[in-house]
Amino acid sequence: MLFGRTPVLPTPDQALRGRPEPGFAVPSRHTVLGNPLVGPYPEGLEVADFALGCFWGAERKFWQTEGVWTTLAGYQGGYTRNPSYEEVCSGMTGHTEVVRVVFDPSVVSYGALLKLFWESHDPTQGFRQGNDVGTQYRSAIYTHSPAQAAAAESSRDAYQRVLNGSGYGTITTEILPAGDRPFYPAEAHHQQYLDKNPGGYCGIGGTGVSCPIGVARADG
Fold first, then answer.
1. End-to-end alpha-carbon separation of the chain, Å?
2. Do the Cβ atoms of 18 and 93 come closer than 8 Å?
3. In the prediction, which pLDDT does 6 show?
4. Is 202 annotated in the active site?
């Protein structure tokens, strides 16, 4: 499906079946922020899910943001239950590499996280991000409320306008509800990878085009 050909998402019937339970344990705490990785999370915090290429560099972008309580690398948007990294990279699960961001909306808004998301990658590349090619590198936002969905769509439309003026093509980011697209945490060595391996690979790179400030509010 991937080697020597354009990546193609599998259908539900083609996707690997997976397993009823995770095949590995997830660390209890974030190595940088010190807070639990897996919920339930404290009252008042909100959850956002972003896919912007390899999750190693993407996760670091978010944990460095003031108001972010914890981050978690994982897989989302596919069909295979409890997939492994190798299965996701095969292109046969339908998932993309995602960062789950748990944040305090009194400190950092969802709109500010959207701005960081858009500016940290090129959302016009389809099934790739830079030299990383595959359906697992596609751009995506999985929303947790109607307010998040409205903010994500508004910010996409505003960013598209400025990208058009800079010679970029159409944004390919999928914006879909997270509710029926389970988030599966990635293996322990993928969590906070660039904290454990400061010189490790980071494929994250934006377009250099700023996302207009104030276009991505998520009030209510």
1. 43
2. yes
3. 80
4. no
pLDDT for 176-192, tens place per residue? 999 999 999 999 999 99
The edge-to-edge listing of strands for the beta sheet with 96-103 is: 174-177, 140-143, 46-51, 96-103, 68-76, 184-185
- Rounded Cα–Cα distance for residues 70 and 102 (Å): 5
In angstroms, the CA 135 to CA 80 distance is 14
Q: Which of 54, 89, 202, 211 is labelled catalytic? A: 54
CA–CA distance, 200 with 56 (Å, rounded to integer): 9
**Closest C-alpha to 216, from 176, 158, 168, 141:** 158
What is this structure's pTM? 0.93
Measured CA to CA, the distance from residue 134 to residue 7 in angstroms comes to 6
- Residue 76 and residue 140 in contact, taking contact as beta carbons nearer than 8 Å: yes
Label residue 156 left, alpha or beta by phi (over 0 means left) and psi (-120 to 50 means alpha): alpha
Work out the burial of residue 66: count CB atoms within 10 Å of its CB; fewer than 13 is exposed, 13-18 middle, 19 or more buried: exposed
Regions of the chain where pLDDT drops below 50: 1-3, 215-220
Instruction: Decide: 129 and 121 in contact? Cβ < 8 Å.
Output: yes
